[in-house]
Each structure stands twice: as structure tokens, then as C-alpha cells.
Specification:
Layout (H helix, E strand, L loop, with lengths): L3 E3 L1 E7 L2 H11 L1 E8 L6 E8 L3 E17 L3 E14 L2 E2 L6 E2 L5 E16 H12 L6 E3 L7 H20 L3 E3 H18 L2 E3 L13 H11 L7 H8 L3 H12 L3 H19 L5 H7 L5 H12 L3 H10 L1
Antiparallel strand pairs: 1-11, 2-4, 3-5, 4-5, 5-9, 6-7, 6-8, 6-9, 10-12
Helix pairs in contact: 2-4, 3-4, 3-8, 5-6, 8-11
Length: 316
């Protein structure tokens, strides 16, 4: 019988600041925690689900939560969906993932809604070693790096896939499947944020010898261009079959499926942030040559047409 892991679920909804503080301390190692807000308006909600290898959480609060957060055995990323927040006194950007350092750092959240992903640190280090062609070990991540463009889209593509399974999947999952999903999450993180082994000052040159890393980098750097599977394979020194196999192993999908997901997320961001652009302009700018196929793929992915996304952005 395969070994099974149970996805645990926790949920706290309260208007009591002491209960909220207890939920925060249960989720994270914190020092000097302060939970502030008016009794008449304070509210707090926290939900999480996952295993010790991979978990997702969401927290919202009408109030202020501050203190110092300490590291644990996971690599933790936080992204604000609304409100204000800071780490080390530096403001966070809404809609952009921020990586917690592997040491204590001060934080402050104000009337916020934030999500968090925790990925097993040993898995992240192992996947980084495979991608970079170096020995597994502790990593340094580029400080305060905020991913943009195709790298950010790669991150969101990973989050959407992981969330669908972690939040809506069965309560019990095989260890093998959870390890696969954790490796997939680690790959999305490593695609978004530059990193290198402790003791180096930048990504070592040996990283270029990892063929999958070269393939992924080429695809992301040229995501909006008219590239083919053969182009990506050639850039990485792989056969087309070898490229298909390595993308399936790392991302669980074919390279063109991955590329289409990146382009669709880029298109959605353009529609939301630049609603005066025409649908055709957005399609061309994000690598779609056929407007009708773009609209159909967009609706299949997001449940609405591009013009509906643009209209909502214009009205907001």
C-alpha cells in the first residue's frame, strides 16, 4: 500500500484580538506580536490547508498585526491581495510574491488580505540543485526581488495549479503525489526569484549547464515571441522528445501548454492594468497570432472573455 499523507485544515474567524493573536502564533513563529484594532470594527479570518511538505493559507483582518517573524523548516512566500504590508520596513507590492528571509524580520500588516505558501525547504534545495547543476545545500535568494513579466506569470501559473489541488483535492494524498506537487511548487518559486548556493555571490556559471534551466529561461525570455518547441529544445541542447519529457517531469505539462498558460496570464495582466488597449493589441503583445483562438483559450482558462476582463477594469 502506498504511504498516505493527510492534508490538515484549520480555520479561525473571530472579532477577538486575543483569539486572532493565538491563530497567528499557531501559524508562524513570532516575537513581540501585537494585534490592534477597535473593538467595534476589528475582525480576523485565517484559513489554511496542506501537509508538512506543502500548504496554502489565506488571512484577512480589519486591524493591524505587527511583530517579528522567525524562520522555520519551510520556504515561505507571502503576497498581499489588498491592504498594506511591510517586511523589514520595506513596503510590499500588492499582487507580487515576497519571500521571507531565512532569519527573523519585522513585519506589519494593516487592514489586509494576504495569501501564503509554505514549501518544504529541503525539497526547494534539492530542486534548485537539479536545475542549477550544483550540490544540494542552503540557498541565498536575491534580496527583496519582485518578479515581473513572464517570470511572474510562471509563478502565478504554478500557484493556480497548486491551489486547485491543495485546496480542493482529497483529504488524503499519497506521499509520492505530494512530493511531486511540492517539487512543482519549488520549480515555480525558483523560476520567479534568482537564487544561488550559500557561499556564492551570484548564480554560478555551472547553472548554465543544466539543460532544463536553459530551456525554461529561453522560453520565459521569449514568451511573447513566435517560438516553437524545436526552438526551445535547440536553445537547451535537447531533442524535442527530451524537452517534452523534462517539462513533463518538472511542470507536469507539455512545454507549449506551459507557454500558453504564461501568455494567458500576461494577457490578463495587460487587460487589467491597461484597459484602453484593444483586445487585438493585447493578443499580439503577448504572443497570440490568432485573435479567435486567443479569446477561446482565455475563456477556457479564466471563465470569461477578454472583453469582460477589460470592461471590469475600465469600470473599477
Amino acid at each position: 500500500m502506498p504511504e498516505l499523507l493527510r492534508r490538515t485544515r484549520s480555520e479561525t474567524r473571530t472579532r477577538d484580538r486575543r483569539v486572532a493573536a493565538g491563530a497567528v502564533m499557531q501559524a508562524d513563529v513570532t516575537h513581540g506580536l501585537l494585534v490592534e484594532g477597535r473593538d467595534s470594527s476589528f475582525s480576523f479570518e485565517d484559513r489554511s490547508r496542506g501537509t508538512h511538505l506543502l500548504s496554502l493559507g489565506s488571512c484577512s483582518c480589519v486591524g493591524v498585526i505587527s511583530g517579528e517573524i522567525a524562520p522555520d523548516d519551510s520556504v515561505t512566500l507571502i503576497w498581499l491581495k489588498s491592504g498594506r504590508g511591510s517586511l523589514d520596513g520595506e513596503p510590499m507590492t500588492v499582487g507580487r510574491p515576497t519571500l521571507l528571509r531565512h532569519d527573523s524580520q519585522p513585519f506589519r500588516w494593516e487592514s489586509f488580505h494576504k495569501d501564503v505558501m509554505r514549501i518544504d525547504r529541503a525539497t526547494v534545495e534539492a530542486v534548485a540543485a537539479e536545475r542549477g547543476d550544483w550540490e544540494p545545500g542552503p540557498l541565498v535568494f536575491q534580496p527583496r526581488h519582485v518578479p515581473e513579466g513572464p517570470n511572474l506569470a510562471a509563478w502565478w501559473l504554478m500557484v493556480r495549479t497548486v491551489a486547485a489541488e491543495v485546496l480542493n483535492g482529497p483529504d488524503e494524498v499519497t506521499l509520492e503525489r505530494e512530493q511531486e506537487l511540492t517539487r512543482f511548487a519549488a520549480a515555480g518559486l525558483l523560476s520567479a526569484i534568482p537564487h544561488w548556493p550559500v557561499g556564492q555571490h551570484e548564480p554560478p556559471q555551472t547553472a548554465a549547464s543544466a539543460r532544463f534551466a536553459r530551456a525554461e529561461s529561453f522560453l520565459l525570455e521569449n514568451a511573447t515571441q513566435q517560438i516553437t518547441v524545436a526552438d526551445v529544445a535547440a536553445a537547451a541542447g535537447l531533442s524535442v522528445r527530451g524537452l517534452q519529457d523534462t517539462f513533463q517531469r518538472h511542470h507536469g505539462i507539455a512545454p507549449l501548454t506551459y507557454l500558453r498558460g504564461i501568455r494567458l496570464l500576461l494577457a490578463r495582466e495587460r487587460l487589467q492594468e491597461e484597459p484602453d488597449l484593444s483586445i487585438a493589441e493585447v493578443a499580439r503583445a503577448t504572443g497570440f497570432a490568432h485573435l479567435g483562438r486567443f479569446a477561446a483559450a482565455y475563456r477556457a482558462e479564466f471563465g470569461e472573455l477578454p472583453r469582460q476582463t477589460r470592461q471590469a477594469a475600465q469600470e473599477s
